[in-house]
Amino acid sequence: MFKALINRLRGRPSLPAKLTYEAAREALEARSADLRLELAGRKGVEPEILYFLAEDKDATIRRRVAANTSTPAKANRLLADDTDEEVRAALARKIARLVPHLKNEESDRVRDLTLETLQRLAQDQLPRVRAIVATEIKACKAAPADLVRRLARDPELSVAGPVLEYSPLLSDADLLEIVNLVRVSDRIAAIARRRNLSVAVCDAVIASMDIPATAALLDNQAANISRTSLEALVDRAAGIEAWHAPLVRRPNLSARVVRRIAGFVSSALIEKLAERPGLDSETAASLKQKTRRAINEGALEEGDTSAVRLVREAVAGGTLDDHFVTAAADLGQRDVVLHALSHLAQADQAAVQRVLESRNARAVTALAWRAGLQMRTAVAIQSLLKLPDILPARGGTEFPLAPADMELNLSLFGLAAKAS
């Protein structure tokens, strides 16, 4: 009472600690913005009062109402269509946090209105509002499954990412559909980070030929990667540095796989391999000897490989050209060809890898064209890949595809036309 008296003397009215319905009505009738703001944030206020304030012309007051857990479901639904972004953001955070407790709600009408409000916010025009919903319900088992599936397919990563990585409501069928149809690296990587990922989904991530996503999968120690799939990855990993450290960190590697990995990773990673618990004494001794030998001979830098080094030396010496790539292809040095194409085409290594593994002769030819190489080099690359239908040169030396056709083939892999 003393505080209220002092505030009145200073010209700043306030509400009493114990607020009756009549006192709340008087505060509204006083037309004081300060009183309305305080009233909008108070717990236990009569629903009628908060519903009235939900239509206040002052957005700051509506934001308070949106964040107030005492606000009735009908007012919440009204605020879901508010013109103010901050109002909808505050509401999204509150409503999403209410979802796990809806089963305890006595009124079916309240539950239905709250879920309708959540659905509306999950379709908000602003990604920020949708992202708040996704983040808050990402691990919630009580969320509507159809809403979670919609958020998982949202065009914004800030929205789709949290549910793709954490939601227990996404089935293997949902995840497989997204991996097989979406073909977007960051979405596949989010799926690859899920705990206890099934063998089927792991295989789909690997089959996507997405290097960052596969690196995330390898780093996910709870992912159920089959022995066959892991060994196939090791076969391809020599020229893909992004996989080296995650492979070294994988649990339960056999001694044979450890020795194979040691054949292409840096000396620093070989040293980490040698420190793995459970290695047999022969393998451990072999790795330590390999590390000492690499150091004595001048080990490569962390993350470096022989393929990377060869390409770097060619760039430095001005010899990264048709002759270099053709020679590497003739020698079966797939990793060298991959790095060379990535450098010459100024293209992401993951995109180049996808082109090579597509076994699409037109796409491989278009990639060589983008890299500024001759058609005879494109044929050599096709031969290296053992493509079933090699696309021959036109007239012995010319590219058989028109530039527009090659641009189209490149676009299918997210690559633009010739590098400038």
Structural account:
Among the domains are: 265-304, no CATH class; 306-411, no CATH class. 63% of the residues lie in helices and 0% in strands. It has helices spanning 2-9, 21-29, 33-41, 47-53, 59-67, 73-79, 85-98, 108-122, 127-137, 145-152, 157-166, 172-182, 185-192, 199-207, 211-219, 227-236, 244-249, 255-262, 267-274, 281-296, 306-317, 322-330, 334-344, 349-358, 361-370, 375-384, 403-411. Helix 11 packs parallel to helix 13 and helix 22 runs parallel beside helix 26. It starts with a helix and ends in a 9-residue tail after the last helix. The model is unreliable at 8-12 and 298-304 (pLDDT under 50).
Write the layout of secondary structure elements.
Elements (H helix, E strand, L loop, with lengths): L1 H8 L11 H9 L3 H9 L5 H7 L5 H9 L5 H7 L5 H14 L9 H15 L4 H11 L7 H8 L4 H10 L5 H11 L2 H8 L6 H9 L3 H9 L7 H10 L7 H6 L5 H8 L4 H8 L6 H16 L9 H12 L4 H9 L3 H11 L4 H10 L2 H10 L4 H10 L18 H9 L9
Helix pairs in contact: 3-5, 5-7, 6-8, 7-8, 7-9, 9-11, 10-11, 11-13, 12-14, 13-15, 19-20, 21-23, 22-23, 22-26, 23-24, 25-26, 25-27
Structural class: mainly alpha
Multimeric state of these chains?
Answer: single chain
Tell me the number of strands.
0
Q: What share of residues is helical?
A: 55-70%
Measured between the Cα atoms of the first and last residue, the distance is: 76 Å
Largest sheet: none
Radius of gyration: 31 Å
Which band does the percent of strand residues land in? under 5%
SSE order: HHHHHHHHHHHHHHHHHHHHHHHHHHH
Unreliable stretches: 8-12, 298-304
Shape: elongated
Give average pLDDT, whole number: 85
Tally of helical segments: 27
